[in-house]
Hints:
Blueprint: H1 14-32, H2 34-59, H3 64-119
Amino acid sequence: MEQKIHHKDFDISWVTIVRIAVAIVFLYFLFLIRDIIIWFIFALIISVLFEPIVRILTKRKIPRVVVVVSIYFIIFGGLAYFLYLVLPFFISEVQEFSQLFPQQIPGYFERISPVFKGLGF
């Protein structure tokens, strides 16, 4: 008894090939502009977060431009003030670390050398 083997043809139309090519070109274009897309998404998130405050203040007859600029000044001013408070402490810690680290290097390597010797280094 003979077994019949059925082969099915896999037929791809030109329309399918063109669609795949267009999809590949589109994905490559998205890859090229990925940095712009990230900034756009970041701006979209910021605008969504600030919309309730802007809506409340514009209902009180304050112009939208004034509200948005004021919000940005408040946020960037707060960040600048935070840096003003934190940066001197951070700089003093880095200076102290840079002065103490050379003194601590020999002792540090002596303590961890058995670990490295055990590993074969």
